Structure formats: structure tokens, C-alpha cells
Amino acid sequence: MRSAVAARPDMEDVLFKPNRRGRLARRAGWVLLGTVLSLTSFAGIAVAGVSASMADSFAPAWHGFEKGHWPAPRTVPASRVTVAVVVSNSGSVATDVLAPYEVFAEAEKFFVYSVAAERRVSALSGGAHLLPDYTLADVESGALPEPDVVVVPAVTDPTDGGEAKLRDWIVKRYRRGARVLGVCAGSELLAASGLLDGRNATSFWSNIGALQSDYPQVHWKRGERYVVDGRITTTAGITSGTVGALRVVEELAGKDEAARIGRGLSYPGWTADGPTAIPANSLELGDLPYALNAAFPWLRPTVGIGLVDGIGEIDAAAAFEAYGGVSFTARTVVLGARDTVTTRHGLVLVTRPAGTSSHGVDRFVVPGLTDPSAIDAPLSAWAHRHELTAQLPGGGRHTGEFGFDPVLRDLAEHSDRRTALVTAKFSEYPSSHLALTGPAWPWRATLPAAAAAVGSIGIGLAPALIRRALRRRAGSA
Q1: How many Cβ atoms sit within 10 Å of the Cβ of residue 165?
Q2: Contact, 167 vs 234, CB < 8 A?
Q3: Which of 60, 118, 392, 440 has the highest CB neighbour number within 10 Å of its CB?
């Protein structure tokens, strides 16, 4: 009898513990399923948001710009130092193209032109568009002088087969004696071409880790504004192309000429003899607004960027990046009095004529100006008709500061200070001198993110709630 009683607990363990384990396993399975559904739903919403942000940043050009109306490119003189600024027909980072262009164009002995695989309207980040002056074939055929300098910006897909012709063209120019300036992630295009094998180089801070893995034959350097290795100079992120271009000007035209141009541009902290070391940035919690603005764009406004003939290239680039290309705080529409605007040094930017429609614009910003009377009459009339006040953040030439300063202050005031600082960081631009006002945090992006998180949790709980409801219904039947 005792042995039977003593054996009973063991029998209960045999009979009931597997049932408890089974229930726990099923509960764990439902928790895991709910977690996976929640995370997948949230990630899907974020990916859709990033896709929308990138699509807006590199949006197609206005379809009304007809080829027959294209302005003829300027003649390239054979007597000057020639700089070819490369543009990808698929898309390039605006400041990588426009900032070095202005630096070299300011040099008295230089002539600068843009070149692409095809002469067709090409997207720049921030919703801008450029009409290249010439094609790669124009140079290959000898119709233009061989460039002394080739500027290579970040492009949307540097390793894609569609850019093979561009990579080969750059290699040929180098082999024929040209200097090469790779700006920001333009170094990846150079690495993919093989030009950086065995060399020292740098790039945008957030790309270097991936580049070290993909191109271990290149000696990648962190914390440098630019790196010179023979006839190849590579720079850190976005605005660093300004400083890298000044370095090449110094090599070809002398320190005095570089200093003259640098003083006029007013890049913070730059001097001809200054150090190349900069902070070696890394991702931090404070960078969260970058992800929030890119992934949750649903409540962001539309900013109309008005351009006038003669605008400085850096002033235009700063507006493209600050409102759309880097900050992702707004959908941007680039407007002009006509369908093209010619910059101070002859670049042709394609704009949408303001009179075509309102485009649902919430704010109207005209960069590079301090006097409202300098705005073209069609732009002013359009703004008045749609009850918009033209806001003039100013520009470097008028205020004695670099073109990014006024638009970063404007971004902080109308979006938030944290986003302005993150935009400067992701542009690799010094920001300690900026006096910013405005909200502290990007609530316009945070609220959709919170709503997406709550909705995703609800999706994750749905299977368990449905199962419980079905069990209750079965039990009451």
C-alpha cells in the first residue's frame, strides 16, 4: 500500500507535466508569432516610408520640359584648366555635384562643365534636376579638350552595370593624366572601377564600414576631411567636397588662389594651412530623427524651393539637402519663372514653371536671396495667388557665411533643432557655431512612428485574441 501511495506523485508527474509543458510551448509559440507579426508590420511600414522618401528625393522631372527647348551648352575653351563634373543620369547627390562645381568655377584659370552618359534631365537629391552640358562620348570623340580634373559625386547605384560606361570613362581620363576628386560616396564608384586599389582613401563616415568589407584592397581612413594619394583625392561626406575641391585648386593654381576662393565661400574653420582631421562620426541615439524623418514621412509638408537665374550653386544645393535630400523633413518642389534656371556659373537646373499649378505647397522658400524684390515676377505672382509668403533664409554671398548656415537655421525653426543638427552631421558639416531656435524634437515624424508601433502591436496580438474568442465560443456551444 505504501509503495502504491509513494508511487502516485511519480505517476502524476508522468501524466500532467507533459500537458503543462505543452501549454507553455503553445503559449510561447503564440508570443513568438505575435512578436514576429508586430516587428514585421512595423518594419514594413518603415520600409514603405523610406521608399516614399527616396522616391520624393529623386523624383522624375517635370514632363513638360521638351528637348527642343534645351539651351545649348557653353563652348569649352582649350586655354584653361578644364574640370568635368560627372553626373549620373540615374541620380546624384546634389551638393557633391554643385559645391565642387562652384569652387572650381570661382578659380580664374578654370573652366567647369557637367558631363553624363546622355544629355538628358538627370535627378539630383532633394527633388532637383540638372541638364548636363555634354556627354561622355563628346569627350571620347575629341570634341572637347581632355579634362584636367574629373569630379565624381555619390550616385544612386555606383556598382550597377548601368554605370559601367561611367566607371570606364573615369578610368580612361585618369590614365590620360587627369586628377580625380571623389566626393563623399563617390569613392565607392572609384573603388568599383579599381582606381583605388592599394591607395589611401576616405568616404562618408557611415559608409566606411561597408566599404572596408567590400573593398579590402583599399586603405580606408576615418576622421579625415579629405585624403590625397597621388592624383586622386577623396573626401568625407557631402559638404567635404568643398574643402577637397579647394585642395585641388591649391595644387593647380596655388595657395593664394585657393585662399581667395575659400574666404569668399566661408566654410566654417577652413584655412589653406588648416588640418584635415575631423571628428570620426558614428551612429548615436541622438541620430534617431534621421531615421524617423525618412521612415515616417506621412505628415511632412511640401516646400516649394524657388530658384532665380544667377543663384549660387552652393546656395541651391544647401536648400535641396536641408529640406529634402538629407533631412527628409519635406517633400520638395523646385520652382522657377520658366522651365530652366541658369546658376551663377552656368549650370542649367530644370525647374517647374510656377504658373503650372499650386502643387499643394505649404511653404515657399527662395534660397540665396535677401531682397524680396530680386524674386522673379512670375514666382512672386504665383506666391501671392496662393497666399504664400516668400521666405528668404539668405545665402553665403550676402551674409558672409557658408550657404548651409541659413537653411539649417530655417530648418531648425520650422522643423526642429535636433533634425537640423543631424542634417549637419549627415552632411559632415561643422555645426557648433550655429545658433538654432525652434522645437527640440521632430514630433511630426514621431507621432506617425508611435501610431505605427501601436498598430503593429495590435496586429501582433490579433492571432491570440482571435484564438481566445474562438475557444470561448466553442466552450459555450
Answers
A1: 13
A2: no
A3: 392
Query: What's the DSSP call for residue 162?
Result: G
Query: Any idea of the CA torsion for 213, 214, 215, 220, to the nearest 10 degrees?
Result: -50
What is the C-alpha separation between 251 and 265, in angstroms, rounded? Answer: 18
Question: Domain 50-63+285-446, what fold?
Answer: Rossmann fold (3.40.50)
Q: What kind and span of H or E run contains 175?
A: helix 164-175
Res. 115: pLDDT tops 50: yes
Cell numbers that stand for 225 in this block: 576631411
Dihedral Cα 20, 22, 28, 31, nearest 10 deg: -100
pLDDT in tens, 327-375: 999 999 999 999 999 999 999 999 999 988 766 999 999 999 999 999 9
Residue with cell 575641391: 245
Triad 261, 262, 267: Cα angle to 5°: 140
| End-to-end CA, the chain | 44
Q: Residue 193 is which amino acid?
A: S
The model carries a pTM of 0.93
pLDDT (average), residues 396-422: 92
**Dihedral-angle region of residue 439 (phi above 0 means left; psi in -120 to 50 means alpha; beta otherwise):** beta
Tell me how far apart the alpha carbons of residues 31 and 27 are, in angstroms, rounded to a whole number.
Answer: 6
pLDDT of amino acid 5: 47
Burial class of residue 477, CB neighbours in 10 A (0-12, 13-18, 19+)? exposed
pLDDT exceeds 80 at position 6: no
Answer whether residue 262 shows pLDDT above 60. yes
Alpha helices in 282-354 (DSSP H): 288-295, 313-320
Tell me: the pLDDT tens digits for 119-130? Answer: 999 999 999 999
pLDDT confidence band for 1 (50 / 70 / 90): very low
For the four alpha carbons of 158, 159, 165 and 169, in that order, the dihedral sign comes to positive
Q: Which residues contact 169 (CB under 8 A, 6 or more apart)?
A: 136, 139, 140
Rounded-to-integer distance, Cα 239 and Cα 279, Å? 14
**Locus of grid cell 580664374:** 108
C-beta separation of 283 from 56 below 8 A? no
Q: What is the grid cell recorded at 60?
A: 522624375
CATH number among 3.40.50.300, 3.40.50.880, 3.40.50.720, 3.40.228.10, domain 76-265: 3.40.50.880
pLDDT score of 13: 57
The grid coordinates listed for 148 are 584636367
CA distance 443 to 267: 31
